[in-house]
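Why do we care about 3D structure at all? Because function follows from shape, and shape follows, mostly, from sequence. That is the central idea of this module. The next example makes it concrete: a single protein chain, its amino acid sequence, and then its structure expressed as tokens.
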Amino acid sequence: MSNLTHYQILEVPQSASLDQIHEAYARLVGESHPDGPETDAEGRTGALDEAWAVLQDPGKREQYDAFLKSARHPANDRDAPRESTAPEGPMPSVPGQPQPPVPAHFCSECGQPWPPEELARFGDRFICANCKIAYAQKLREGVASTATFAYAGFWIRFVASLLDGVILFVAGMVVQLPFARLFQSRRIDLVLMAMGAVYLIDIAIAATYEGVFISRFGATPGKMALELKVVRPDGGPISLGRAVGRYFAKMVSAMILMIGYIMAGFDSQKRALHDMICDTRVIRVSS
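And the structure:
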């Protein structure tokens, strides 16, 4: 299958949507089960996983499409032959005629095209020399994964934010109690000072709330209630610094008329602007 493009391997046209690609991938993986009709189930499953790893990521897919265009690869359609009909052995070179492109595989991590002999295979994934050391480290740490995540959409994340908002509102009311007398003062400077102090304390509480819960448990109480989790793109945990930074990135999402949050409803991986800034994903946790 090395002569086939990822689109041909998944039996979809190059213009297929992500949902169509995922549906084809799931169907073909089922057909390639060891108990199924395929005779080379293991080899075909590896090719399917490699194709899905590239095409499900918008950035990797864009790079792959650009490579196909530059290499003038044959059209990618459903009717393309499943096996190459070219004769075995090297093709004789014809003076003045362009030579066919050398078949290439794509790194499952960075999505860049590489000659097959320069890729290392880890299970069903192909890793290039540039990514091999980092990927091996992920394997040692137990964070490398080939799983397909179920990303959390806009509305379920909105409900989780409401639940967290209720908790933070109660905490904020408690914080305001020592400043109650200042708020009742007739001196504007004291009122403004109290408002500023409460605002800063509220931010500190919210940043600590977000940072501690996400770094330790992978989710705030609101997300836990709805079985959501914040992870890195490879499924790894979020550090404390990244979790706190993500909280402040949320302010950017809110400042632009909440458009940063709305973006989650249109992104293929359901990323809001603050997820893109901090390179995080919100996924559904299997029960």
